[in-house]
Structure formats: C-alpha cells, structure tokens
Amino acid sequence: MTRVYGIPTSRTANFIKFQRDPLGFLVDALPMGDVVSLRTSSLRPTFVVNSPDFVQEILVHQEQHFRKGRSSNVLRRTIGDGLLTSEHSVHKQQKKYLIPVFYKERIQTYAQIVRDETLRLADSLEEGQPVPMHEIMMQLTLGIIARSLFNTELAGDKAELAEAVDVTIRQSAGTIFSPIILPFSVPTPGNVRHKRAIRTLEAMIYETISKAKQDPEAYADTMLGLLLDTKDESGGSLSDQEIRDQMMTMLLAGHETTANALVWAWYCLERTPDALHRMYAELNQIREKEEQSGQQLTAYEHYREMSFTKQIVQETLRLYPPAWAILRESNRALDMLGDHFPNNSSFLISPYAIHRNDKVFGDASSFRPDRFDGGVSQWARFAYFPFGGGSRGCIGSQFALLEAGLIMGTLAEKFEFTSSPGQGEAIPEPLVSLRIKNGRWMVPKRR
C-alpha cells in the first residue's frame, strides 16, 4: 500500500501559497500523509516528506542516491565549494580533514572564548536601554567564530561584517525558491549588493590567511591552522581559494544560525515565566556551588552543570530550527519503503513542520523545555533533527549547543530581557535560516 498522497490543491495554488507562506504551507501538509506529492511536472516531481522513516531513508540509508542540487548551486555563489555545498566524494574528503576542528578537547577550549566574549557584551549593556537583540546576537556569535576558529579579533569590524553576512543570506534566500535564477553576472541591484558583501567578507578572510602564513604558530590550534597544514590527495597544500571557501562556510553557517536560535530563545522565555525562573534557579545553584567550594568552574564545567538551560536550547531548536527546510534531489530512480520515485525527484524535508507533530510531542506548539527531561532517544530517529542527519549532518552541532547554552547562561546570570513595547508577536521569517521578521528589540534589566 502506497504511503504517497497527492495534495488536493492545484499546482498554481500550491506555488502561490508556498511563495507567500512557506512555513504555513509545510505545516498544513503535515497531516496529509507520510509523503505528499505536489503534483508537479512528471519529469521533476516534487514531494514533501513528513515521516521520520522516510527522512532517514533520504538522509542516511540511501543518501548516496541524492544530491543537494539547487540549494547548493545558489549557496555556492557565496561560499564556493565548502563543506556546505560540496557533494559526495569531495564532501567526504573535506569533512574528514575538518572533523578535528570540533573534537571535544577543542570545544572545551572554545568554551572559554564563548564565555569571555559574552561577558564583554554583558559589560556593554545598559539597564533599561533597548537593544536590537538580533543584531547583538549576530555580532556576538560572529566574534566567537572568528576568535575560536580563526584566532581573529574583529573589534570594530563586527557590525560591518555582520551586515555583509545579512546581505548574502537575504540574497541567497530570495534566490533558492525563486522560479527564475538570474546569472550572478547580471548587474541587478541585488547582485551588486551581494557581490559587494562577498568582497567585504573576503577582505577579512584573505587578510587572516596572510597573517596565518606569516606566523603559523599563532594559529596552530585553530581551524585556519589546521587547513594550512592539510594536504590534498596529491600531497599538496590546500589552495587559498579552498581555505577561503571553508572559512566563508563557517562564517555563514556557523554563527547566523546560532544567533537566530538565541533570539528565539529569549523571546520564548519571556512568554514562559516558569521556564525562565527554573533557568534562574539553576544558575543560582551553580553559583552557590562555586561559592561553597571556593573554586570557580571553568567555562566548559559551567556548561556541563546547566542541564535545564540545555533543554531550553533544545526546545527552541524544536520549535524554531534554524535549518527549517532541507532539500534533496534524486540522481536515479529508486524505491523507498515500498514506494517508487522517478529519477530527478525533488524532496522537501521540513524540521520546522515535523517538529510540530502533536502525535509525537503532544501540545507541540507550546514551549516546554521539560519535554527533553527524558532526552531525545524517547522519540523516533528524525522525529527531532534540528541539525539534519547522515553524513551531511551539521559537523559543528556540539559546538553550537555549547555556544548557545553558554551565551544564555552567561547573560542570564546578569540580565532579564523583555521585548520593547509595540512589536507584537514575533513572526518567523524563513530565509536561509529561520529568523524573527524585522528582528526583536529587547530591554535588559539587571537581576
């Protein structure tokens, strides 16, 4: 018996609704079936995947039969052939030499950088003075990535670089789901802004590469140092272009996603007083433990003590996963779980929608961090997958969880944040990652 169901609305109606509200479209498709055919062209049929076991087939069991396709082609215009856009054997090779960047020992070192940078931000906040939380989280995580992976202090360049990242993300997002992709060489206003933003990011990247080559010892324990020491299959060093592509990938994929998740977390906590107070109680308990022992915990030890704060991050990633959609295209005809799919089939997988399945999570639209008390193993694999999965799962997922948890805990030790009046409810904006539309202004209040 087939598990593929045809969507009841017309192709034109589907296209218009998706363009207007992609998240609403995907959530509405969730109860329609395990796999929903959008009844598009027979040459390139498109399906929405709602069932965790089908997700596992695509991302794990039969991943060799899929490519990222259109999404990678668009992102490649910005980040080149980095880990996020490379395919198959190239991706496998790149992942192999990048994995050591996120070994546990290195992450413990990164933890102190996260805490130091966050404390620096906390010292700059003024009680009662509204701040654009979306902007300061972006600049904070950008500075953390630059220091931890590139040993680079951005100082006064943070705002300019964060703006450049924002431009590249908005332009890329507008192109991925556009019916027509104009060549990058066409001088539209958007392409001109996009190229200017890339040049801004590249200027910092190439300057850092040059400094690292002049003083390798200073960069020995960073991702950049690792890339400079890496040999390709022929035994030669990586080109500056390939190093640039990996650094650009980490800049875009490694900070913007975490920043967006943090803004959502502050917003959700503001509306869930019980969770907020439980987080404060946990932080107070950690401080009391330090005072009684007379010893200050390291940043990493501090993170390990924050069990409920970690659950807040996990619940935020459930409701507002930065990677709200995953695209795959088949490179051959194939059978999956009893159903046949033609060559060049496109599959749209939405963690945002799948994470809202009431049958799995119960009261799925509510923000309840305590649902993670039992860990993620209580649910089927790929019922919860904010970092994707398979060989293309996020290589920096553990660093991202640590970074988000430490930033939240460090800031919450000193401040409570409430939304500035007049903004209304937050509206999700699905760009390359999931943002709050128009950002969020919040007011810090000292605890």
From TrEMBL:
Binding-site list for heme: C394
Cofactor entry: heme
A matching Pfam family: p450
Keyword annotations: Heme, Iron, Metal-binding, Monooxygenase, Oxidoreductase
Coiled-coil portions: none
Single Gene Ontology MF annotation: oxidoreductase activity, acting on paired donors, with incorporation or reduction of molecular oxygen
Family statement drawn from the similarity comment of this UniProt entry: Belongs to the cytochrome P450 family.
Protein name from the UniProt record: Cytochrome P450
Organism name: Cohnella abietis
